[in-house]
Amino acid sequence: MSTREQTPSDHVDVVIVGAGLSGVGAAYRLQTEAPGTSYTILEGRTALGGTWDLFRYPGIRSDSDMYTLGYSFKPWRDGKALADGASILEYIRETADEFGIEEHIRYASKVVDADFDTESGHWTLTIEDTTTGDRRSMTCGFLYSCAGYYDYDDPQAPEFPGAETFTGRVVHPQFWPTDLDHDGSRVVVIGSGATAVTLVPAMLAGDEAAAHVTMLQRTPTWISAVPSTDKLAERLKSVLPAKVAHRAVRAKNIAFSTAVYQFCRRWPEKARTVLTANVAKFVGEDQTAAHFTPPYDPWDQRLCAVPGGDLFRSITSGRAEVVTDHIERFVPEGILLRSGRILEADIIVTATGLRLSAFGGIRPSVDGEQVVLSDQFVWNGAMITGIPNFAICIGYTNASWTLRADLTHRLVCKVINWMGRNGHRAVEPAPDAELTPQPLLDLSSGYVQRAIDAFPRQGDRRPWQVRQNYVLDSITTLRTDLDTTLRPVPARRRAPGRVAV
């Protein structure tokens, strides 16, 4: 490893970690709402786009409508309500180019260490070049993690007994091989989340379609068919100016998704009835009862959307099926189930989900002492107690990620402007009374429960609650009184052996 000498250009006011949908949106808000703020985006990969550049499996698409997943400042003009990954990636690239954001991105730059010095009021970042392994350092006044909370290097990949005996090919969607030919193959997709329900119809489409695809699930997932296109949106776009139509459709979709979520949470039994009836229209009541009626309530885990009911149509065509069973072990010809049935396969896709990783793997320290994240609380879903001049971007679990992300971007700008006006070099959120700790993400999904103890907590009242309600958040977040909830951080004694740059 080598470390190059730091130069004056290696200090900026703000470092944004991640050049995906959130990072590009954060950069736009800094440029427009905190003008004059110098910033750099550090991206560990060699291209922008984040999730939408990394994932290349067949059929990858958004699971939120693009009128709310897209930026409020750049109308989504495509007709697809749930867009494919390539279209979203192009949209992010266009945004970065249009607003001069691209020139601020440093690629192949992964933050591997971050230490805040309370005396100087600066972060010192250790950055690894992911192409060479070399390391360098830079400093910044404020650190903003827009890398999400998934581990994109190490997916959730259970070890299956007998996997080494399988004579076909095993692939994981997160690392989809470019040379995989599934034409005429028998495919088993393990999993029933958003990735699995996307893969099944996608692998049956086109000229190089699989012969048959089985979705193997241990437990059913709540799935609902949604329209492929938003007809009302298309009508509004045909009669209204683009920006006006975009705002109208965005408001309509926010209201609808909020209402659906509230309905599911307040009247779960009625929601069960509606959702199962939706599925039964496509596959019948027997299939619905056997494979599409989960034991948990709607929105205890994320609800999957299938545009045009494509998954259900694949099943009724006879080219796909859903099997609900447990895996006993892999065998040479496929998968032996606990029931004794063997699912024959040429390709097995382990759509078993992602691991959670706090803030892109960054483990922040203050004056040389690493912060125990699980002891901290999140303020307004953005800043964290015990960590000065630091914010995270996390989206909604029940609505488009970008809705909360954009609120957080604007809140960060408000904090930075407030710090400048008041001459504060370092601030952190501080509760005025004891808080009752609650998990940061209120989902019962396995991938959440496995890792949530490594994350900071939310409290039992605002602004310490991470609410799943954009309507309320849009009213209150930017009205938060910073003078009463943020406090200046005094210089502290550094831990032995750590030197500020």
UniProtKB/TrEMBL annotation:
UniProt key word Membrane: no
Keywords: FAD, Flavoprotein, Monooxygenase, NADP, Oxidoreductase
Domain of life: Bacteria
Names of the cofactor(s): FAD
Entries under Pfam families matching the protein: FMO-like, NAD_binding_8
GO molecular function: flavin adenine dinucleotide binding; N,N-dimethylaniline monooxygenase activity; NADP binding
Family label: Belongs to the FAD-binding monooxygenase family.
Stated name of the protein: Monooxygenase flavin-binding family protein
Organism classification: Bacteria, Bacillati, Actinomycetota, Actinomycetes, Propionibacteriales
